[in-house]
Amino acid sequence: MAESALRRFVTHGRTVCRNGGVRCLFTEASDPEALSDVKTTTSVKSFSELPGPRGLPIVGTVTEYFRKANKGQMHEVQRKFHRQYGKIFKEKFGSYDNVSVGDPSLVEEILRAEGKYPHRPPYEAWVLYNELRKRRGGIMTANGEQWRGNRSAMNPKLLRPKAVGDFVDGINSVVTDFVDRLRFLKDREGEGEFVPHLPNELNKFTMEALGYVLLDTRLGCLERQVDPKIQNFITSIATMFLTGHQMMAFTKVYKNLRLKTWRMHVKAWDTIYEIAQEYIEAKMEDVAERLSGDVQEGDRVDFLTYLVGNGQMSRQEIYENITEVLLGGVDTAANSMSFLLYSLAKNTDAQDTLRDEVDSVLDGKTCTYDDLQRMPYLKAVVKETLRLYPPIPINARILQEDTIVDNTLIHKGTCVLLNNYTMSRDPSIFSNPDQFVPERWLKAEAKEWHPFSILPFGYGARSCVGRRIAETEIYLATIRVCQNFNLKLSDKFDITPSVRTQLTAGAELPILFEER
Questions:
Q1: Phi, then psi, of 55 in degrees rounded to 5
Q2: Residue 472 vs residues 155, 161, 336, 418, 479: alpha-carbon distances, Å
Q3: Which member of 293, 339, 360, 444 has the greatest number of CB atoms within 10 A?
Q4: H-helix or E-strand spanning residue 104
């Protein structure tokens, strides 16, 4: 491990220094003595010297992102700008001065230099909604001390591998019902070949799995007849993410004029909270009874019971955090599953290799947590999917102090965009970057890819709190699909990934399910 760390330092050498209150980040190994006085030894560039698109007065580059040809294609527009202007560029996006970074060494420096409270900017629409409804914000929408308190209370239950392993049996039960529903829909509505609205069915699966993990409750998302409020919840999540994205440049204008997009956004959030609170309230009485009884150390407890029992959050904070984990988890894992199944259908050699591994390890039985540790190709398939289709194609940070990045002074308060999608498709970083090659992540065949060239769940303190749960859902569902079906690609249409906060595949997937 020490040797690997040393090798990475030599390869991607970095130095962080401070000079007059300015944080300095360098991407090449430097002599510390030569950095004793940055102002005299280095010609630091000003922000204005950064290259970038000029844009239009007032709106900047907003029109480039939202014109018809680029609608939903922010990730591709950013990729185009990086090809044109290099690894780091600036742009005026409405009232914001943004800096975009598409180099893993620079991304590493920025993220490793974060302080105690990394500031990930939520959509302004989320902040304005919380102010409107007098909410403090949960793990997704809060920052600063409020976020830190939320995160500290949640980490032990959601991020420790053993804690996640306790949920495998229950998630497997959900997976069984999910496969049954896929088969039911395929045979009844899909001419025995395809599953209509498959991404939406994946949303139902992830919602059902999270209901079990968070509330120890089966919500009924996979029944033959699904309660309309479940679909209302899923649709409201999509609407909330989409409208937040659409208003990102001039949110206050939308709000102050009460335009339709703002009204849709508020209604979507209200619906999400109303339905989530109904589920939480229904479980609260059971939680109180359980906590008043004899809970033994080592007993499996759901997330709600854990939060109530540890006493670190108020009731309102519990409502808000569980709601945000639920809505974020429903969308993230389902979108990733959509791209994964599509990639397997498109790349049958990888599908065959994965199926061979699944059959060899499991021999037809249900997967356990220990079994997962013996499936390197499964994990490589998931990682390669997340490289090609990162859930969050563009991450962001607000700099908390004046910072020198790549010899350019970037001022405190600047929004820095970290381009996961651009890096994952960069031929100077990955060989054959647009091809699905899980083998690149296997120890026997992989080169040392820069660890910050793929960050599907973020990094550090602000990484996705539900990462391990999402990965476990994806692993177990993928295994069971491989055990039951051969996936083939339909020639009737293809997908066009688009951004609605997260990267999505669309309403339909060109996948045919052939019984094994």
A1: 75, -170
A2: 16, 10, 12, 26, 11
A3: 339
A4: helix 104-112
pLDDT at 410 over 50: yes
Q: At what angle do helices 198-215 and 303-310 cross, to 10 degrees?
A: 40
Give the integer Cα–Cα distance in Å for 340 and 7.
Answer: 33
Ramachandran region of residue 19, left (φ > 0), alpha (ψ -120 to 50) or beta? beta
Q: Which residues are annotated as a binding site for heme?
A: 464
Q: At residue 337, does pLDDT exceed 70?
A: yes
Q: pTM, whole model, 2 decimals?
A: 0.91
Which amino acid is it at 320?
A: E
Contact indicator for 423, 429 with CB cutoff of 8 Å: yes
What are the tens digits of pLDDT across the range 343-396? 999 999 999 999 999 999 999 999 999 999 999 999 999 999 999 999 999 999
Instruction: Give the H/E segment covering residue 89.
Output: strand 88-93
* pLDDT tens by residue, 118-159: 899 989 999 999 999 999 999 999 999 999 999 998 888 776
Q: Residues 346, 339: contact at Cβ < 8 Å?
A: no
Q: Is 90 helix (H, G, I), strand (E, B) or coil?
A: strand
Residue 9 is encoded by which pair of tokens? 């330092």
Which residues have C-beta within 8 Å of that of residue 7, sequence separation ≥ 6?
A: 448
The span from the CA of 151 to the CA of 461, in Å, is 8
Instruction: Give the angle subtended at the CA of 142 by the CAs of 138 and 144, to the nearest 5°.
Output: 130
What angle separates helix 303-310 from helix 144-158, to the nearest 10 degrees? 120
What tokens does 486 get? 């051969």
Per DSSP bridges, beta strands 408-410 and 511-515 are unpaired
Pairing status of strand 502-504 against strand 408-410:
unpaired
Q: Which H/E stretch holds residue 502?
A: strand 502-504
Could you tell me the two tokens for 164? 């996640």
In tens, the pLDDT along 214-224 reads 999 999 999 99
Q: Which DSSP string do the residues of 312-365 spell out, in sequence order? A: -S-HHHHHHHHHHHHHHHHHHHHHHHHHHHHHHHH-HHHHHHHHHHHHHHHTTS
Q: How far apart are CA 273 and CA 269, in angstroms?
A: 6
Q: Would you list which residues are annotated within the binding site?
A: 464
Which residues pair with residue 60 across a beta bridge?
56, 93
CATH 1.10.630.10 corresponds to the domain 44-515: yes
